[in-house]
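Feature request, filed as a ticket because there's no other form

It would be nice if the structure record came with a short human-readable summary line next to the C-alpha cells. Right now we just get the raw output. Example of a typical job, pasted below so the devs can see what we mean:
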Amino acid sequence: MGAAALVLAFAGPLTVAPLHAQSPGTAAGPVVPSFWSASRRLERPDATRLPSTIRFLTTDDYPPFNFAAADGALMGFNVDLARAVCAELAVTCTIQPVAFDTLLDALEQNKGDAVIAGVAASPANRARADFSEHYLGTPARFVGRGDIALTAASPAEVASKSVAVVGGTAHEAYLRAFFNEAAIRPYPDAAGARAALTSGQADLLFGDGISLSLWLNSAQAAGCCRFVGGPFTESRYFGDGLAVAVKPGNEQLRRAIDYALQRVWEKGVYTDLYLRWFPVGFY
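Raw output as currently delivered:
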C-alpha cells in the first residue's frame, strides 16, 4: 500500500455506509469492522480449478500493512491476510514485494496472480484489473484531546468547535460541505494539523482514520487524544476501501478470494489480525 492508495474524491452526499461490527469482547475495546453478511453464502470454489500456488504481489514500505522486518521477512496486515486466504483455500502462498507504482504492471506481466497492497479500485485501475469485494475501509474520524467532553460528532455538536484538517484534501471538502458551521482551520500537512490539536489551537482534528489510529498508538501522541464520534465512510469522499486486484477476467480466482475472505472473517481470523495490527481501531 502506498500514498497513491489514499487519493480521494471530492463530491457526494452525506451518507454512512452500513457496517457489521464484531466486538472483541469488551465494551471499551475497538470495534472490528466487517464487510460480509452472515446470511450471504458464497459458493465454495472448485479446488480443481484453482492454482496450486497463489502468487501475491505487495510492497514492503507501508507499515503496518506491508513492510520488511529487520531480517527482511515480509510482515503486516495485508501479508497475514493473504496467507490466511491461501490457508482457507488450501493452496500454497507466495508474497513478492515490488514498487507500488509497478504493481499493476507486474500483474499484467504475469509476475503475480493477485495484488494485496491498497491499490485503489478507481475507474482507471478497473480498466487494468478486476477487484475482490473490499476487506477494509478508509473511514474519516474526528480526534479530540483526552479531556474533551464530546462523545459524538454531529454537525450540531461540532458547530461550536474549531477543527484542524489538512488543506486541499477530501477531508477538508467534507467538513466544508457538512460541518460548515465549525471553525475549519486548514494546515499544510498532517504534522501541522496534529500539532494544532495537541497545542490547543484547535478543539478537534479531522482526517484519515487509519493514519490517525496509528498516530494515537504512537509514542509521539503520548496518550494525548482519542477518537470522537464517527466513523464517516462516504465512498465518494473517502474511497471504496481496500480490495485484492486480479487480472481482468480471472473470475475463478476473484470469486475464490471473496469466498476465502468471508470464511476468514466468519472463523474470527480477520478479527485477530485486525486487533493485532490496529490496537487502536479506526472504526
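Something like this underneath would help us a lot:
Residues 86 and 266 are 16 Å apart (CA to CA).
DSSP finds ten helices and 15 strands in the chain.
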